[in-house]
Amino acid sequence: MDYYIVIPIHNEDAYLEQTLTAVALQTLSPKKVILVNDNSTDNSETVIDRFVQEHSFFYKLNIVSSSEHMPGSKVINAFKKGLAILDDAYEFIVKLDADIILPTNYFENISNHFKNDSQIGICGGFIYEKQGSGEWVLNHPMNKDHVRGAIKAYSKECFKAIGGLKNAMGWDTVDELLAQYNGFKMHTDDELKVKHLRPTGKAYNARAKRLQGKAMYSMRYGFIITTIASLKMAIKNNSIKSFWNNMAGYINASRNNNNYMVTEEEGKFIRNLRWTNIKRKIGV
């Protein structure tokens, strides 16, 4: 299957060479890889230029946006800039982070999953992060069907159906909810172990960590589901502060009548889906 990759890059020279080397060594090579250099002030562009010279499928795109590393808005803005210079001659498209190492058979396996099941809309492996002991340990939400935002692959049909990616915090949750709304499913392959070189959220500032509640509002979760989801997150992170941050973000968004990411009909589907999953997990 033909596929494109878009990699947003902002000051990633510590990790970028390993990421691009892993892409270059794939047993199923990409048709195009757009390397979106987003206002980098380190040596990222030097690394990009070398790979563009050495491999015909790498392309560089320089853009200038905010230097502030905010989840959602900055990375998806860069992704969309890269997407804009691509055509539609692909069968699946990938949003990839610049600080990961893929197994060499990663995209060959992803391609096979899409090819063998047309209902799969979003596909990916699992993220592992290095501990102080040197051991690589699985870092994943409790929902094993979720594909992490660092390694998301979308079938062309699904990507078009969900209207691409939302330029906001929560983009890598709402995409899966909308995929299900449009009749697609997620597929994760636990044999595809991806090394994440920088732990999730390390580059985000304190303000960014308070945006999750706002995202829950924009996905039309409603107050009760937001409370349950925030408690679940606080328990997973062993941080009561994250619960209060989430709830404050939700309440502030509600008071300010912030825009929604989904329609009323999509929101109703999302709430019903969330309640179904909650009841299933508690055995109701």
Automatic annotation (TrEMBL):
Q: Write out the similarity annotation.
A: Belongs to the glycosyltransferase 2 family.
Q: What is the lineage of its organism?
A: Bacteria, Pseudomonadati, Bacteroidota, Flavobacteriia, Flavobacteriales
Entries under Gene3D superfamilies matching the protein: Spore Coat Polysaccharide Biosynthesis Protein SpsA, Chain A (3.90.550.10)
Q: What is this protein called?
A: Glycosyltransferase family A protein
Print the keywords alphabetically. Answer: Glycosyltransferase, Transferase
Entry annotated with the keyword Transport: no
* The species this protein was found in: Maribacter confluentis
| GO terms for MF | glycosyltransferase activity
Segments passing through the bilayer = none
E.C. number: 2.4.-.-
